[in-house]
Design a protein that fits this description.
The structure is a single chain. This protein is α+β, with helices and mostly antiparallel strands and 914 residues long. Helix content is 17%, strand content 28%. α10 packs across α11 and α13 runs antiparallel to α14. It has a domain of 62 residues. Strands 3, 4, 5, 7, 8 and 43 form a 6-stranded antiparallel beta sheet that branches. Strands 2, 44, 45, 46 and 48 form a 5-stranded antiparallel beta sheet that branches. A hairpin with an 8-residue loop joins β21 and β22.
Length: 914
């Protein structure tokens, strides 16, 4: 019986091709009644054994072998060829468009990157406008500020308070004790200090006085373990102290041990610059690393000093290479493996120096054999600290340093080899680089400032630009040029999105005469201090100095948006100026015995000086071997080597000093008092003659003749004993502690109604503003819903200009330059002349000895005023379209460079998202 294949049925689980064509291979269970079924219902059950299956692939390949379809082979090749042709066509189209219609590719890149970091796919629009409003202001009469502003919550109210280091207009060398009584109504010390202002109101929380001005403040460590950070302060006159952050009291004061050798007088140069570093003595608390420069009988010498942070004890001291002076606090570069390298610079404005690195553990041991030299200049040193930031994205910080002598160099932090360098010929700088994300990449860029001219303090202009952190290439089309500039770098405000940061920096111009000045020089013999305090705008253009603190970004046209303008703040900044000359004269009028005691002491002091061979004549000129502007160099470091430090000019000559138990220097009374930080001696025909000392203020604007009239009609009531105590009394031990009284002139004297302060009319005061301090970005006191605000604390101050330094212009300048050339020429007509003789010949000016009238200067001292601002800055965008939003200012803890030398002032740049 044939196999009824037509009636054969299989289950759905079998594919047709899986079933063999040979039905004989299939064995089924048969239903006896109905015969074979063709479906489930007709009796097909489960096969007794699985059917034999033939390979599917074999069948397929056998079919291909029999009938090969060419279309199946060619289709993939056709599709690939079409895709390649389309791609090539697009490339040709783009190239053609670029050639026919040029368009900057950086604009295209910026378009794609502008939305980086956006939320909800919205595009970030950069901030192009700023709204500035006052939060509070505070006037500080008689103070100068040359330190950075720091933040520290000292009253524990959750708001960061403002810490400012300061000096006073009475500072000098061997300043007599009675100056504190005359001008500050307090006992010594009174020439410097640090003040804490309430962050909410600007009111004084505490004030700590010191014997000399403060240059550096570091409030980043709690050494007293009272949950309030303490402040390390350092500066001029050997001041190095730890101040309790909570109440301003003295925790410890470092007094350098001189060993068996006795000091033969107070050094003219004795400067500390210190900061906290990691624990090196094993007590679990941060320690202190300081740069120290001091003049000695052998010359200026610099060293690095390690001090215990807990107790102020000496740990280690090492000399710098070549024993060269060093003026800024060393920095610590930390590698990924935890190794710490100390970076420090040496040299001065007219003396050789370099940039060096030494392992911290070797420094702790006193071993300087592993010092590595990164840079060396045989003419000028390094006056500003470098920035530590990662430029090559290797995870380790690199080093960017602005050398005093016209060059900026970036070094690889691991190899200490140069990455790039940029030169600004014929320029000098005191300013540290300021890092920020200025362009659109993730590598910080650097704002730098350089002054152009013959050399400090004579500059014709200042230039500011921004360097690409990757290559050193300038990012501005042309630098910002102003008349004076500043001796400080800048700050940055970190804004959402790379390339949106704002750089804050100072500009200074003569009003209505912006830009560089014409070349000029000073009369030979003018002191460096008189030159640096000359009102050039008045002398050159009969104008005034106008300063601005501006904000610049790549989206804002240079020089930037003015955040502060001196022209708009004049009335406020002169509102509390005090006629200190009248104040001193009133004291003399009410204390008649004081002047008698002073004169007797002067006679005794002069007799002593005559016995020692000193003279009292003063020269209007300096010998040509000295550091004159005409020669513009320093020829050695002998007895008339001059050190220039900002406003401070000092000669290498010692004076007597007596130290008390507290370590503060108790000044002795002498007839030739020198104040306002000028310590200048000149050599005339082989003799040493002190110039007119800077206590003499006859040449300063605003001084008044010395007349002892009774200003308030009060009756003298003080006895002779109190006058002697003022003259010779020892320092009050409590003077090292904090004061809750603020400024005595503003409080104690007014409360006692001894006399009212004689205020000057702001419209009639002519001051000279100094740009020697940077402010700080601060957390906003009032936040906004858009996170578009941040606060800025800014400090300005002015002093009275000095008129002793006269400019040389026109034919007189040509005469001096010509004859100066002859002086330097061995065969020149005027080779045997000095600067005084040349000036006499050119100006027909008669040089003569002038007696020093120290009385007039000491009792006619004029001081300026400092002003502290707290400003609120809000970011605004000019236009915001659909799908866009204005960029926000990042929170304070995400700010990369909010204060001088970054967070905590240690030079470390805080990268984005760190």
């Amino acid at each position: 019986m044939p196999y009824p294949s037509s009636k054969l049925a299989v289950r759905d689980s079998f594919d047709d091709e899986d079933v063999s064509d040979d039905v004989e291979d299939e064995v089924f269970i048969r239903d006896g009644r109905n015969g074979f079924k063709v479906d489930e219902e007709r009796g097909v059950k489960r096969p007794l054994m699985a059917p034999r299956r033939k390979s599917k692939s074999s069948q397929f390949h056998s079919e291909i072998g029999r009938n090969p379809p060419c279309r199946a082979l060619c289709a993939p090749f056709c599709y690939g060829f079409i895709a390649l042709a389309v791609l090539l066509g697009l490339i040709l189209l783009v190239v053609s468009l670029v050639m026919w219609f040029p368009f900057p590719l950086d604009k295209v890149i910026k378009f794609w990157k502008v939305g980086e970091g956006s939320q909800l796919d919205s595009i970030i629009v950069p901030c192009t406008e700023l709204v500035v409003e006052d939060v509070w202001t505070r006037s500080l009469p008689k103070l100068t500020v040359e330190s950075a502003v720091r933040l520290n919550d000292v009253n524990r109210d959750g708001v960061m308070d403002v810490i400012v280091g300061y000096g006073t207009g009475a500072d000098g060398h061997n300043v007599p004790n009675f100056m504190c009584t005359l001008y500050f109504d307090r006992k010594t010390p009174c020439l410097g200090g640090v003040i804490a202002l309430d962050g909410l109101t600007g009111n004084t929380i505490w004030q700590h006085w010191t014997s000399h001005p403060i240059f550096t403040v570091d409030c980043s460590a709690d050494l007293t373990e009272d949950k309030t950070s303490d402040c390390l302060i350092s500066g001029k006159g050997g001041v190095l102290q730890l101040v309790n952050g909570h109440d301003g009291s003295n925790v410890w004061q470092f007094v350098e041990q001189v060993g068996g050798a006795e000091l033969h007088g107070e050094p003219f140069v004795d400067i500390f610059s210190a900061q906290f570093i990691q624990d090196v003595d094993g007590d679990g608390l941060p320690d202190v690393l300081a740069a120290h420069t001091q003049d000695t009988p052998e010359g200026m010498k610099g060293c690095l000093v390690l001090i215990s942070g807990k107790e102020g004890k000496f740990l280690q001291k090492v000399a710098t290479p070549h024993q060269e002076e060093t003026y800024y606090a060393p920095q610590v570069l930390v590698y990924l493996d935890g190794a710490s390298i100390v970076m420090f610079g040496t040299g001065g404005q007219a003396s050789p120096g370099g940039l060096y690195a030494v392992p911290l553990h070797q420094l702790v041991k006193g071993n300087m054999l592993e010092v590595q030299e990164l840079y060396r200049d045989e003419a000028k040193g390094i006056m500003s600290p470098p920035v530590l930031a990662d430029l090559n994205q290797d995870g380790s910080e690199d080093v960017v340093a602005a050398m005093f002598n016209s060059v900026v160099i970036a070094f690889n932090g691991l190899t200490l080899q140069p990455l790039w360098n940029v030169s600004f010929p014929g320029s000098e700088t005191f300013s540290a680089p300021t890092p920020s994300y200025f362009n659109d990449d993730s590598i910080p860029d650097f704002l730098v400032k350089y002054q152009n001219g013959p050399g400090f303090p004579v500059y014709y202009s200042s230039q500011t630009t921004v360097l690409d952190g990757k290559t050193g290439t300038p990012l501005l089309d042309k630098p910002v040029v102003d008349t004076a500039g500043s001796q400080m770098g800048g700050l940055s405000i970190s804004v959402e999105g790379l390339g949106n940061d704002l750089l804050l920096y100072w500009t200074a111009n003569c009003l209505h005469h912006e830009g560089p000045t014409k070349p000029f020089s000073f009369m030979p013999g003018s002191s460096i201090q008189a030159q640096s305090r000359a009102d050039l705008c008045q002398m050159l253009f009969n104008s005034t100095l106008s300063t601005q603190f501006v904000a610049l970004s790549q989206h804002v046209e240079p020089p930037g948006i003015a955040v502060y303008s001196s022209e708009e703040r004049r009335e406020l900044e002169y509102n509390s100026s005090v006629n200190t000359s009248a104040q001193a004269h009133h004291y003399l009028d009410t204390h008649p015995d004081f002047l008698d005691a002073y004169r007797r002491n002067t006679v005794i002091s002069n007799k002593k000086k005559e016995f020692e061979g000193d003279t009292t004549g003063a020269s209007s000129f300096r010998h040509r071997g000295d550091d004159s502007v005409l020669g513009n160099n320093v020829k050695g470091k002998g007895s008339n080597y001059f050190y220039n430090e900002g406003d401070y000019l000092v000669a290498n000559q010692g004076q007597n000093r007596i130290s008390n138990d507290a370590g503060e220097q108790e000044e002795t009374l002498a007839s030739d008092f020198q104040g306002n930080s000028e310590y200048l001696n000149v050599r005339k025909h082989g003799g040493t003659h002190p110039l007119e000392q800077t206590w003499q203020q006859q040449g300063e604007e605003g001084s008044i003749p010395l007349t002892y009239t009774n200003l308030m009609g009060s009756n003298p009531g003080q006895n002779r004993d109190s006058d002697y105590e003022v003259l010779y009394g020892p320092m009050n031990a409590e003077s090292l502690g904090g004061s809750q009284q603020g400024f005595p002139v503003d409080t104690q004297q007014e409360k006692r109604t001894v006399y009212r302060r004689v205020k000057r009319d702001a419209q009639h005061v002519h001051g000279l503003q100094r740009l020697t301090s940077l402010g700080t970005v601060a957390p906003p006191l009032r936040t906004s819903s858009n996170n578009d605000t941040i606060d800025l604390v800014l400090v300005t101050y002015w002093i009275y200009p000095m008129t002793e330094a006269q400019l040389v212009l026109g034919k007189y300048k040509e005469c001096l330059e010509k004859k100066q050339t002859d002086i330097n020429n061995a065969n020149g007509k005027y080779h045997s002349f000095d600067a005084e003789m040349v000036a006499k010949d050119c100006f027909d000016y008669k040089w003569e000895e002038k007696p020093v009238d120290s009385v007039s200067g000491q009792f006619s001292l004029n001081m300026g005023q400092a002003t502290v601002y707290r400003l609120r800055i809000a970011c605004r965008c000019r236009s915001v379209g659909t799908g866009e939003r204005c960029s926000t200012i990042l929170p304070f803890d995400q700010q990369s460079w909010p204060e001088f030398m970054g967070h905590n002032g240690n030079g470390h740049f805080r990268p984005r998202n760190s």
